[in-house]
Each structure stands twice: as structure tokens, then as C-alpha cells.
Amino acid sequence: MFFLFVLANFxxxxxxxxxxxxxxxxxxxVLMAFFISWVVCWFPIAAISAIVMSWQPTKPLQPEQKxxxxxxxxxxxxxxxxxxxxxxxxSFADYGLILSISLLGGLGVGFGLGLFSLAMMxxxxxxxxxxxxxxxxxxxxxxxxxxxxxxxxxVGGVEELVFRGFxxxxxxxxxxxxxxxxxxxxxxxxxxxVWEQKETLPQLPGLWLMGMMLVxxxxxxxxxxxxxxxxxxxxVWAIATIDTAQLIxxxxxxxxxxxxxxxxxxxxxxxxxxxxGTGLVLLLL
Length: 285
Prior knowledge:
71% of the residues lie in helices and 2% in strands.
């Protein structure tokens, strides 16, 4: 909390400078200003982190090098968004973040639904002989479950606040909700290319579909981000845990376009059907 307080006071002069410019700005200008401010504020932290980790631009980032960059980037997002809220006279409640028991309830419902949908997907794949469970790697779980859960809650919460909260709500000022949903989901999918291009490209359709599903989650939750946050966090937590512990191996019985290219579920038809099925459940809520 002290870290966030220091950041808020540090960036207050920048907020005051931008106030006259953004107060009556159009939606595209507001969105661009947010992303530019987010990157500019994060860049010094990223540069220092790169120096500390002795990162070389000619070498790809390793997972352990990406983590501090991701965490600092996501911790900054609420601070930058707070600046936008001050300038544009909005509130976090306008973007679906209402601190209440109902938010926690939605978070729990979404988390459970996310885990259930993935469990169903992998159960079908096990039954068809597309993949196998590595029981010997279960011993790795106690040391990684909690850290990955905390990161998943951070990533899921911030991405929902930014994409299904801020961006979707701002776009709805100029467009019908489903056009706003399509645009915000496109932005959501494309920005995943920042961290990894080769493995992310086949996932773009699945990421876009996931974005649309998460919009449905916010609608089902009557404008709150609770269910969307829980769903997103559950998907990140489960997939990251499976990857880190190498709990699943694919048999090669079918093409990876079914199971997921580069072992990424959203890059395969199984993951797409999983997202569609979850969306169908949300329609019934």
C-alpha cells in the first residue's frame, strides 16, 4: 500500500499537466493517453529491472525474467487509471470495480466456473487419448500453487479492470455494447503479442473469443467485474500451473490444431470449444 501511495503522489503533477488536454477528449484519445502513460511510467522500472537481471536484447526473455516485468507493469495500471479517473471525472465503480461482498461472490463464481470448464476440457482429451497426466510431477504443486495463484489474481484483476472495465466502458460511450466488445477484445488479443509473438499468433482468435466471453461475464454480473475477474484468474492459474509443473503431455494422436499449437489450449479447437461452452453457461446465468 505504501508503494502505491508513493506512486500516486509521484504521478500527481503529470495528471495536473494533462488535465486541460484530456478533460473533453474523445474516446480514442483517452485510450491512447492511458496506454502511452502506462508504458512511459513503467519504462524506467523495466530498464532498471533489465540491468539488474543482466538481460541482453539479443536473447529472448526467460519466464523468471518476465515475471518481475509483468508484476511491476500490472501494479502500475491502477495508478495510471486512477489518473484517468481524476481527469475524466469517472470512478472505479463506473468501470465495474465495486468493492463489496457481491464482487467477492462473483469472483468465487467465476473462479469455480473457470476451473470447471478446464477440467471438462482436459477430461474429454484424457478420455480420447489425446493427452496423459504426469502423476510423478504432482510433488511440484505445493511450492508453486500459491505464488501462481497470487500472480493470476493480479493479472486477471488488472486485465479485467483495463479491458472489460475501462476500455469497454469508454467505447460504449460511442458504440453499441457488442461493437465495443468486439473492439476491446481485439485490443486485448493483439496486446498479448507484446510478450511473445511466435506462440501468441496462433492464439489470437482464441484470445479474441476469450475477450468476448469475459464481456459476457461482466454483462451476466450486471456490470460488475467479479465473475470476469474470477474466470480470468482461474484460467491463468490452472494453465500456468499445468505448464510450470508439466502435468500434462500430449500423445500426438491428433493434430496440435485440436489440442493447441505450442501446447497452448487457446491455439486449438479444444480450447475454443471450452471458451464457447463457458460462454453458453454465462448466457444462462
